[in-house]
Amino acid sequence: MSAPNPILAVEHLSIAVDTAGGLLAVEDVSFDIRAGEVFGMVGESGCGKSLCALAIAGLLRPPVHVTGGAVRFDGQDILRMPSRQFRHLRGGKIAMIFQEPMTALNPLMTIGDQIGEMFVLHEGLGKAEARRKAIGALERVQVPSPKRRISDYPHQLSGGMRQRVMIAIALACRPSLLIADEPTTALDVTIQAEITELILELCRAQGTAVLMISHDLGHVAEISNRVAVMYAGRIAEVQTGQAVFQSPRHPYTSALVASMPQPGRRLAEGRHSLVEIRGVVPPLGQRREGCQFAPRCPRSDAACKAAVPPFTALQAGGKVSCFHHV
Amino acid sequence: MSEAILPALTVRDLHVQYSLRKGLQTRILRAVDGVSFTLQPGECLGLVGESGCGKSSLAQAIMGIVEPASGSIEIAGLPADKTAIGGLDRARAIQMVFQDPYSSLNPRMTIRKTLAGPLHLHRLCPPSEVEDRIRTLLALVGLEPDAADRYPHAFSGGQRQRLCIARALAVEPRILVCDEPVSALDVSIRAQIINLLLRLKDELGLALLMISHDLGVVEHMSDRIAVMYLGRFVEEGRWDQVLSRPAHPYTRALLASVPGATKATGPGRRMTGEAPSALRPPPGCAFHPRCAEAFEPCRTGSGPPVTMLEEGHCARCHLLTERVPA
Fold first, then answer.
1. I need a labelling partner for A7 at 20 to 30 A (CA). Which of A194, B22, B205, B283 fits?
2. In this structure, are residues B164 and A244 in contact, taking their beta carbons and an 8 Å threshold?
3. Lowest mean pLDDT among A87-101, A295-309, A311-325, B102-116
């Protein structure tokens, strides 16, 4: 395969939380994102997906830190980059949208100043020019009457509008990579589709790659080129968006799909009983040797409990970490 | 005529209002604005709508947590007020399961004490039998008897939600109001709670009022579905009627906003904009500013009347009255 050079390559990334013993929250995570690609990352709370995002954005703070691996952005290892240099990259070429727009925006600054700041910091524009470009940025995210809205404070906007402002800030300097960490989870169902579409449309138009992080497998599978499914700090499988939902290869993913009440399914097939996944996700302090899903897995045997399964490359592309994959 | 079973719950023309004082002005917020429905024993009514549409206010009025401004609530044919079913009687008839099982259990009480509380309060069994009853309740929700000695912190989210359900069932209610019972839980354990609620509904003949924004969950669980918009039911019917032949443009837009749902329900138009505030509802049909199909009559008056479409399926929309000759 002659794929174009990835814009982002994560190689054997491990992240630990410093406690008495030192707990590994993310272990040996590798994936890459090609220019302009939408890459989904799904998993339940505590699986490490957000930590991966923060590591890529260089936002991990003690007691959490990277213990191994590399993150290459456009060929440069950003984990070992001087922080002054990284600060220039972050916000400019690597942008981020968080789940809760209210806490991510500064309540004491008008939204115009917050968007304009991007142009001042990253493009060295003057105030008046930055303001003019901020109005344009607001227009692109479809905020009605941007000229008037520019002097509003975040509290004057609805949740959906705030998230649009966040998108305007993130995409202001035409980044090559946008990290979107559950960008629609805090919003109403009806707004969610609109905001997701807006993010994807703008990114497509300017060739920005997206790392879309979510707990909603169905949603991410629909919009992503490829999806990584994470479980308890490791990648379980990577497949194309369509395949991960329709023919999941890791027992965890296939159990997850079978356990979800999917819209339209009862209408089409009648009520089926949902498959329950026994047990719970192991808490960080109680992870064990071998495959973390083994205690809950119908296919597990002694081998699963002894060693972490290596990745098997799938014929149709992608990889799965399971001795007994589907 | 077929023999009528007494409905578990009858709500007639219910209004819930909050008065908000701002300076010298007092404004009325109509959270629930004339809602009527019945709920049969063993039936699950799924209630969907965006945040702020009045779902939770309706649930609170039914529970007796807020006093309705007007309208009536009957439980098994008896008015839910001081003359017939008030105070403790009402609490015996209706119980509630909340969204967040972490904040709805007292962290300083053992499970035994939590479950014994309602048994003592309602004098449901002699002290010598309390222990047996607790064991039965725990078994009913799939927990081991030794759970009684532990505190809430020792349980996972799914187990805590089971405990909340056990506590609600301690008084043998006829009606269980569930406000987003699975949305705070990890995806891999939601199926357990959904299956449990459905089993209890069938085994105990419980009437379920199920509030959820997750249309997959609502489709899977509901016998009937009500769609709420700004304080009113805009559509109500059997689950398959509402999902396969949605009559109200809002219902169609809601279904279209769910990833994957369009395959089953056909193309629907997504809506634009956000729900208006219940403090300043638009004149006419409250949905008209967001409705792609709105025409003249939608913009004035007090909103469209209820149109009966089929047995048990009705909606409030001018488009429907136009088609049906008076």
1. A194
2. no
3. A87-101
Name which of B80-84, B109-113, B114-118 the model is least confident about: B80-84
Side-by-side strand order, sheet with B232-238: B94-97, B175-179, B207-211, B44-48, B224-229, B232-238, B313-316, B306-310
Q: Which two tokens stand for residue B184?
A: 């705070």
User: What is the signed CA dihedral for B49, B52, B58, B59, rounded to 10 degrees?
Assistant: 80
User: By three-state DSSP, how is residue B230 classified?
Assistant: coil
d(CA A185, CA B27): 31
Distance from C-alpha of A134 to C-alpha of A154, rounded to nearest angstrom? 15
DSSP annotation of B151: -
pTM score of the predicted model: 0.85
What phi and psi, each to the nearest 5 degrees, are found at residue A272?
A: -115, 155
Helical axes A159-171 vs A111-123, angle rounded to 10°: 10
Comparing CB atoms, the residue among B158, B260, B263 nearest residue A280 is B158
**Contact A252/A297 with Cβ under 8 angstroms?**
yes
CA-to-CA distance for A130 and A120, rounded, in angstroms? 6
Instruction: Tell me how close the Cα of B4 comes to any Cα of chain A, in angstroms.
Output: 27
Measured CA to CA, the distance from residue B123 to residue B120 in angstroms comes to: 5
Q: For residue B14, give the nearest of B91, B94, B79, B76 by alpha carbon.
A: B79
CB A304 within 8 A of CB A290: yes
Q: Can you tell me the distance from the alpha carbon of B83 to that of B66, in angstroms, rounded to the nearest whole number?
A: 18
pLDDT in the model for residue B314 = 95
Paired residues of A125 in beta bridges: none
Of A255, A250, A219, A257, nearest to A235 (Cα)?
A: A250
Token pair for residue A267? 């209408």
What's the angle, vertex CA A28, arms to CA A26 and CA A31, rounded to 5? 100
In angstroms, the separation between the Cα of residue B316 and the nearest Cα of chain A is: 20
Q: Which chain B residues contact residue A267 at CB under 8 A? A: 219, 240, 243-244, 264-265
Whether the bond between B107 and the residue before it is cis, its omega within 30 degrees of 0, is no
CB atoms within 10 A of CB A246: 11
pLDDT at A1: 44
Single-letter amino acid code for the residue at A24 = L
Q: Express each pLDDT in B202-261 by its tens digit.
A: 999 999 999 998 889 999 999 999 999 999 999 999 999 999 999 999 999 888 887 654
Q: Which of A161, A274, A280 sits opposite B195 (nearest CB)?
A: A274
Helix (H, G, I), strand (E, B) or coil at B17: strand
Could you identify the residue written with the tokens 């506590």? B167
Give pairs for A270-275: CB < 8 Å, separation 24+.
A271/B220, A273/B195, A274/B191, A274/B194, A274/B195, A274/B220, A275/B191
**Per-residue confidence (pLDDT) for residue B35, from 0 to 100:** 95
Please state, in angstroms and rounded to a whole number, the distance separating the CA atoms of residues A258 and A251: 10
- Write down the pLDDT at residue B113: 94
Contact check, Cβ <8 Å, B260/A222: yes
CA–CA separation, B297 vs B291, rounded Å? 13
